Each structure stands twice: as structure tokens, then as C-alpha cells.
Amino acid sequence: MGSVLDFPQGDPQDLAVGARLQRWRRVRLISIEDLAVKLKVTPETLRRIEAGHEHLNSAAMGAATTALGLPLWALASDTPAD
Asked: What is the pLDDT of residues 53-69, one digit of tens each?
């Protein structure tokens, strides 16, 4: 069975979530520092999440979507669920 360690660039799902988080944060004009405070993580941890090198747990994903004024699916997918 494979593991996250098998992905040299990071887990593909974490990479996708991180890219979406970064895109929405920039669209909303929120700094890394301000969003990190709302997520209760350090700015460095948020940078690692956005780069896909650290996992965003479900509680932090909920906090991020709330802080960004987004529905929860917006970080998990590019399209809403049916």
C-alpha cells in the first residue's frame, strides 16, 4: 500500500486544496498573516499548506472557508457537488 511519502511533490489532494486556498485568499485580498491567525496556525504553516506540503484538516478547512466567505466545497473541489 502506498503512502504520502510516495509523492515527492506532496499528496495530489493536498496540492489541489492548497492551490485553491491560495487562489481564494488572493482573490479575497487576505494576507497570509491574517488568514493564519484565523486558522490558528503560523504563517509558515499556512505557506506549507498552500504549497501542498502540509495537510489541511477538516476543522481548519471549515475555518478557512468561513474566513474566506466560501462554501465548504470550494476548497475540496472546483465544482459544487450535485
From this structure: 999 988 999 999 999 99
Q: Is 25 among the domain residues?
A: yes
Q: Mean pLDDT of all residues in the chain?
A: 88
Sign of CA dihedral 74, 15, 19, 44: positive
| Residue 14 lies in domain | 10-76
Predicted structure pTM score? 0.83
Helices (H), 1-82: 12-27, 32-39, 43-50, 58-68, 73-76
CATH number of the domain to which 72 belongs: 1.10.260.40
